[in-house]
Amino acid sequence: MNRPWCVGPYCVEHARSIETVSSSTGINKRLALAAAWAIMLMCPLVVAAEGEHGSHQNHLAVFGGFTGEARRERSFSLGLDYERRISESFGVGALLEGASGDRDFWVAAIPFSLHRGHWKFSVAPGIEHEEGHGDHGLIRVSAGYGIKINGLEIAPLLAVDFVEGDTVLVMGITIGMGF
Q1: Are 77 and 173 in contact (CB under 8 A)?
Q2: Residue 143 phi/psi, 5° resolution?
Q3: Which of 9, 126, 162, 169 has a CA between 20 and 30 Å from the CA of residue 19?
Q4: Beta bridge partners of 61
Q5: If you ran DSSP here, which 8-state letter would residue 74 be given?
Q6: Which pLDDT does position 11 carry in this prediction?
Q7: Confidence class of residue 93 from pLDDT cuts 50, 70 and 90?
Q8: Would you kindly state where each structural domain of the chain is located, as residue ranges?
Q9: Residue 18 and residue 123 in contact, taking contact as beta carbons nearer than 8 Å
Q10: pLDDT tens-digit readout, 100-118
Q11: Whether the Cβ atoms of residue 175 and residue 146 lie closer than 8 Å to each other
Q12: Which letter, b or e, does each residue of 52-91 get, where b requires 16 or more Cβ atoms within 10 Å of its Cβ?
């Protein structure tokens, strides 16, 4: 039985809610609209597959890497990432990442991921918490290339966080497994 996970009006509602969030959190309106369009364009691809679709429905990974010099001052980053595959090509999840150095940051986001072969592309609205300075809305855009070795998936990851007019580069490796 195929069940649509996202249909036109539902996607438009999410686009409107992202625009509303952008005005209340200070996220650049153009960036929020770009994220909304990306989600709406992925929506027609999101249909639950009949039966099994060849990969695990759940994926849990740890992330280790570094952030760029701007904003987070080349901090070491360590994170945890969960994804639930809705179909062969679409997943939704949660991520939590901490960056520590001269200043400490936490990032929490909800990634919407598109899978194409070994490639994974994500757009993730979320929040950055800076110790002593509070919370700021962010949008994370990322790409990774997963390689399966002995039941584990190892993926180099490149992400860009857009937060309060700053652009933060995040690079590292995720190691995870499906279940």
Answers
A1: no
A2: -140, 140
A3: 169
A4: 81, 176
A5: S
A6: 47
A7: very high
A8: 54-178
A9: no
A10: 877 788 999 999 999 999 9
A11: no
A12: eeeeeeebebebebbbbeebbeebebebebbbebbbebbb
Classified as helix, coil or strand, 94 is strand
Q: Above 90 in pLDDT, residue 92?
A: yes
Residue closest to 145 by CA, chosen among 134, 135, 126, 158: 158
Q: What is the pLDDT of residue 74?
A: 75
The span from the CA of 98 to the CA of 134, in Å, is: 15
Query: From CA 36, how far away is CA 69, in angstroms rounded?
Result: 28
CA dist list (Å): 127 to 94, 105, 107, 156, 168:
12, 10, 6, 23, 14
CB count in 10 Å sphere of residue 28: 15
CATH number of 54-178: 2.40.160.20
Amino acid at 130: E
Contact assessment for residue 148 and residue 174, using Cβ atoms and an 8 Å cutoff: no
CA distance 131 to 54: 42
Q: Which helix (H) or strand (E) holds 80?
A: strand 76-85
Phi and psi for 101 in degrees, rounded to 5? -175, -130
